Amino acid sequence: MATLSTSHLDRLQGQSLGVEDLRELMEIVNETARSLQSTHEALTQEVGRLKGELAEANRQIIRQRELAALGEMAAGIAHEIRNPLGSIQLYVQMLGDDVAERAEESALCRKIGVAVQTMDAIVSDVLTFARNIRVRPVEASAEDVFGRALSNVEALVARHDVRIVRVTGTECLIHADPMLLMQALGNVMRNAIEAMVEASVTPPVLELRADVRTMRCPDGARAVRHVLTVRDHGPGLPGEVAQRMFNPFYTTRATGTGLGLAIVHRIVVAHGGHVLAGNADDGGAEISICLPPRVDGDDDADGAVPETIHDARACAASVRDELVQGEAT
Question: Quick check: 185 and 140 in contact, CB under 8 A?
Fold first, then answer.
């Protein structure tokens, strides 16, 4: 690129400028202006990119703070609810035994028992969402990972005669916590199956694919990710749903807590990955879990599993025995 240097000025000083000199100067000025314009545009684009990354980082920070506060509150409520639920379940079982030969009363007891189990499942979801996640990564094939997740939903698959299609992709090793990833993928599969059932899709088809991609991550950087994709043949995701589906307690269904996909998001983020949700080109929703090739384990997080309803039942039984003994004395 030609530049306007001091040698040009020295050569032209004290001389009358000819047409060629003026043409050369104009070319230099124009080229310099074009270079400045190009530099300005590049800097403007870079500033825009950095602003976008900063805004996304701020959104993530705000989201994490909100989730932490929400999780702490929800966990406190859930713990307070769990023990009374265990007592109710115990006493319903005892009452059911007493009225076993009275059909109407026995049926009511069974209904109460089912309702308590549903509430206990909700409490379990809340506690799972609220607790810190400890990641213990190991290597496993994508085929094995999908197989484990399918075992979580095999009853749902059998009930609705869901056809499972393994799409040929790039076979890759997944470095992740197998139990956590099984839970995350299982939640995604369950959500996809329920969406197809609600839309009366016949036959319901679930496509599973694994591949390795170089992709742009939420922080703006490009990186290699091992991607596990679950695609259904349902009605797809409306724009608003795709934006909010990983928010806790957000659901478009009459039943459910709205925590299944929020738990998926937490598990994937704990692995240093991210989740993509959208619609496939030829229809259906598509959710991809994108994980780094290597995941760091976390030995400091609190991975205590919340007590089950069976523990609460045992506690209630102990209290009942003490009450009975007290009445006897």
Answer: no
1 in a domain, yes or no?
Answer: no
Q: Mean pLDDT, to the nearest integer, of 234-258? A: 78
Instruction: Encode pLDDT of 133-148 as tens digits.
Output: 888 999 999 889 999 9
Distance between CA 267 and CA 163 in Å, rounded?
27
List Cβ neighbours of 263 (8 Å cut-off, separation of 6 or more).
Answer: 125, 128, 129, 183, 184, 187
187, amino acid identity: N
Which range has the worst mean pLDDT, 90-99, 164-173, 212-221, 262-271? 164-173
**C-alpha–C-alpha distance, residues 120 and 117, integer Å:** 5
Domain limits for position 275? 138-291
pLDDT tens digits, one per residue of 269-278? 999 999 999 8
What the block records as the tokens of 316 is: 């209630």
184 and 255: one domain? yes
CATH number of the domain to which 117 belongs: 1.10.287
* CATH number of the CATH domain containing 241: 3.30.565.10
Q: Which residues of 261-287 are buried (b: 16+ CB within 10 A; e: fewer)?
A: bbbbbbbbbbbbbbbebebeeeebbbb
Q: Quote the CA–CA distance of 268 and 97 in Å, as a whole number.
A: 45
Q: How far apart are CA 273 and CA 157, in angstroms?
A: 28
